[in-house]
Design brief:
- The protein is mainly alpha-helical.
- The chain has one domain (3-216, 242-434).
- The protein is built from 20 helices and four strands.
- Strand 2 (156-159) and strand 3 form a beta hairpin.
- Helix 4 (34-43) packs across helix 5 and helix 18 runs antiparallel to helix 19 (391-408).
- The chain starts with a helix and ends with a helix.
- Keywords: Cell membrane, Membrane, Transmembrane, Transmembrane helix, Transport.
- The chain crosses the membrane at residues 21-45, 51-70, 77-97, 103-121, 133-157, 169-187, 194-213, 243-265, 286-308, 314-333, 340-360, 372-405, 417-434.
- It is a multi-pass membrane protein.
Length: 435
């Protein structure tokens, strides 16, 4: 057995190079959209989209490689959805804070992240969460990403009268996504190896043949310069001198902490990594996120988070950090081959998200639904994520209700002190973001 296979424990995890390479590749293509979506969102804040593209790719590569090599988990990290919108639309556009100052706020939050991770405070918090709520987080993430997939496919659309409704199922782009979902489900049902990845390839081919997906005009391009965003956060540190900015920093901390913690728990449950209600090497996994957030703040992108799309790689058999090494390698390669990534449209990734959502919903059966004190907060977590379009908001709803239901049923002493503290923090958090 080679050194690499021994280091990543291939034999213990019952995996192989082929499986891990397929898993890492699948995860990358499932989340490649962030390379283009993140620059679009942050450009609304006045940032240079080309620089953000390069910063997104480099930050994702560094954080994901750290996750793979040090934490040895098949989980990828990249600038998170939701928090990038908070940065651009709430802080910069809504509050009128210059993007350089907002980026300085992220840098401060990142340093705090590094400190609480080094002292294993984040790890202790994760260990204090009850098993049922961890299962609810995993299932909620499943519903959340399935909802994203259905929306990206055009199957579910916004409706001002009913909030959401069925989309135009006869449109060419929606039909392409439906084709991908059906094909992937058939492949999964027949237990075809790498079914999700194969489904994405078939959907891309059909999209090209039907001209729903345009072939790129060139294969290779130079990476855009980082000059417009590099180091701007350092120069703006002196502008963090108001209570408003302190609240912005705290919000970045809360959102990124629980987006990553919640996603890690959900993915660990899916892959079977949890042991005695604890995630082995959780400290190293959390450190990967802290490193990514710090690097991103320095070179110019919004906070990072463990990506739920990693579940697609886990679903095809990824069980070691070597899968993340492959994903990180693709992020580096994407700097030169960015035109090729235009082939991976939302219609191509939507089927993977829907299918993985189905797989993750399996965690619902393990929750103790007979005990209302457990069932109520679990349900709020599960339903809250897709309805608020936020992993951290869904967790907040459940974590606030959990101590209440436990106290009223005479089990106050069974609630970990950290859970009481988290409930109070989440109350302040929800008040702040909705005030």
């Amino acid at each position: 057995m080679s050194f690499i296979a021994k280091y990543f424990h291939f034999q213990e995890e019952k995996t192989s190079y082929r499986t891990e390479i397929i898993a890492g590749t699948t995860t990358f293509f499932a989340m490649a959209y962030i390379l283009f979506l993140n620059p679009t969102v942050l450009s609304a804040a006045g940032m240079d989209s080309g620089a953000v593209f390069t910063a997104t790719a480099i930050t994702s590569a560094i954080a994901t490689l750290f996750m793979g090599i040090v934490a040895r988990y098949p989980i990828a990290i990249a600038p998170g959805l939701g928090v990038n919108a908070f940065f651009a639309y709430s802080v910069v556009v809504g509050m009128g804070v210059p993007w350089q100052t907002a980026m300085a706020g992220i840098l401060v939050a990142a340093v705090i992240f590094l400190l609480i991770t080094l002292f294993k405070i984040r790890e202790k918090i994760i260990d204090s969460i009850p098993q049922d709520l961890k299962l609810a987080i995993a299932a909620g993430i499943g519903l959340f990403i399935a909802f994203i997939g259905l929306h990206n496919a055009g199957i579910i659309i916004a409706n001002k009268d009913t909030m959401v409704s069925l989309g135009h199922l006869t449109s060419a782009s929606t039909l392409l996504a439906i084709f991908g979902i059906v094909v992937t489900l058939v492949l999964m049902a027949r237990k075809v190896p790498a079914a999700i990845f194969v489904g994405m390839i078939l959907t891309s081919v059909v999209g090209i043949l039907t001209k729903q997906i345009q072939l790129p005009h060139t294969l290779i391009s130079n990476a855009p310069s980082l000059a417009p965003t590099m180091g701007k956060s350092f120069a703006a540190l002196g502008q963090i001198n108001s209570f408003q900015m302190i609240m912005v920093i705290l919000t970045f901390l809360i959102v990124t902490f629980f987006d990553t913690a919640g996603t890690l728990i959900g993915l660990a449950e899916q892959a079977g990594f949890m042991k005695d209600n604890k995630m082995p090497r959780a400290g190293s996994a959390l450190m990967a996120d802290a490193v990514g957030m710090t690097v991103g703040a320095v070179i110019g992108t919004s906070p990072t988070s463990a990506f739920v799309e990693s579940s697609s790689g886990i679903a095809v058999g990824g069980r070691t950090g070597f899968a993340s090494v492959i994903t990180g390698f693709f992020f580096l390669i994407s700097l030169l081959f960015s035109p090729l990534l235009t082939v991976v449209t939302s219609q191509v990734t939507a089927p993977a998200l829907v299918v993985v959502g189905i797989l993750m919903a399996n965690n619902l059966r393990k929750i103790n639904w007979q005990d209302l004190a457990i069932a109520a907060p679990s349900f709020l977590i599960v339903i809250g994520m897709p309805l608020t379009y936020s992993i951290s908001d869904g967790i907040a709803l459940g974590f606030i209700v959990y101590p209440i239901t436990m106290i009223t049923t005479g089990r106050a002493k069974k609630v970990h002190p950290i859970m009481y503290a988290l409930a109070l923090i989440f109350i302040l958090y929800l008040f702040t973001i909705t005030h």
